[in-house]
C-alpha cells in the first residue's frame, strides 16, 4: 500500500530526539526559559484510508543538513528612509554594517533583531496592499519577541501607529509597517 508523508508542523524536516537535544545544547538560550520547543511529528497517510503517526524519534527522518536557526526575514519596502524611520528610529533596531548592501542591485539595510536580522529591500511589492486583514495575525507576518508589550503599546500610541492586540488574550501586539507588512510583537 503506497503512503505519502505530510509534515504536521510546517514543511521543515524533522530532528530525532538525540539530534534535537544536541542542537538545543549548542543553541544560545532563548530570551525566556518558559518558551519550550514544540515536538515535531509527521503524519503518514496510507492511500487505503489508514492513518499512522510517525514520531520525530524515527532516525529515518533526521535531516542531514543541520537546521540551526532563522537567519533573517526579508521585508519589501517602497522607501528605505521611511522604513528606517520606523524600524530603526521608532523600534530601535540597530543596523548591521557588515552586511553587503553595496553588492546588491537594489537599496536595502540589515537590522539586528536579537541574534537574527530583518533585511529591508527597496523593491516593488508584488502583493496587494488593499483588502488585507485588519488584524495582522490573520495575514503573513513576522513575529518579534519583546520584553514588555505595554511599553511598546505606549510607543505606538505616542507615534500614532495603529495596532490590534492578540485575539487570544496573550501579551502580543500586531501592527503594520509603513508598507503594510504585518508585524507581531509577542512578550516573552
TrEMBL record:
<feature type="domain" description="VOC">
    <location>
        <begin position="69"/>
        <end position="188"/>
    </location>
</feature>
<dbReference type="InterPro" id="IPR050383">
    <property type="entry name" value="GlyoxalaseI/FosfomycinResist"/>
</dbReference>
<protein>
    <recommendedName>
        <fullName>VOC domain-containing protein</fullName>
    </recommendedName>
</protein>
<dbReference type="InterPro" id="IPR004360">
    <property type="entry name" value="Glyas_Fos-R_dOase_dom"/>
</dbReference>
<feature type="signal peptide">
    <location>
        <begin position="1"/>
        <end position="27"/>
    </location>
</feature>
<keyword id="KW-0732">Signal</keyword>
<dbReference type="InterPro" id="IPR037523">
    <property type="entry name" value="VOC_core"/>
</dbReference>
<dbReference type="Pfam" id="PF00903">
    <property type="entry name" value="Glyoxalase"/>
</dbReference>
<dbReference type="InterPro" id="IPR029068">
    <property type="entry name" value="Glyas_Bleomycin-R_OHBP_Dase"/>
</dbReference>
Amino acid at each position: 500500500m503506497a503512503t505519502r508523508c505530510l509534515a504536521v508542523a510546517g514543511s521543515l524536516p524533522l530532528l530525532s530526539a538525540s539530534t534535537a537535544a544536541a542542537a538545543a545544547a549548542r543553541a544560545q538560550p532563548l530570551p525566556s526559559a518558559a518558551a519550550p520547543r514544540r515536538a515535531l511529528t509527521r503524519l503518514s497517510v496510507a492511500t487505503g484510508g489508514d492513518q499512522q503517526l510517525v514520531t520525530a524519534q524515527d532516525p529515518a527522518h533526521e535531516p542531514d543538513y543541520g537546521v540551526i536557526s532563522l537567519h533573517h526575514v526579508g521585508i519589501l519596502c517602497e522607501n528605505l528612509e521611511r522604513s528606517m524611520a520606523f524600524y530603526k528610529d521608532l523600534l530601535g533596531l540597530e543596523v548591521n554594517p557588515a552586511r553587503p548592501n553595496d553588492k546588491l542591485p537594489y537599496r536595502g539595510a540589515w537590522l539586528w533583531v536579537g541574534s537574527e536580522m530583518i533585511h529591508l529591500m527597496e523593491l516593488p511589492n508584488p502583493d496587494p496592499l488593499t483588502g488585507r486583514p485588519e488584524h495582522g495575525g490573520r495575514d503573513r507576518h513576522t513575529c518579534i519577541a519583546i520584553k514588555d508589550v505595554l511599553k511598546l503599546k505606549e510607543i505606538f500610541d505616542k507615534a500614532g501607529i495603529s495596532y490590534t492586540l492578540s485575539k487570544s488574550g496573550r501579551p502580543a501586539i500586531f501592527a503594520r509597517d509603513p508598507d503594510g507588512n504585518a508585524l507581531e510583537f509577542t512578550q516573552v
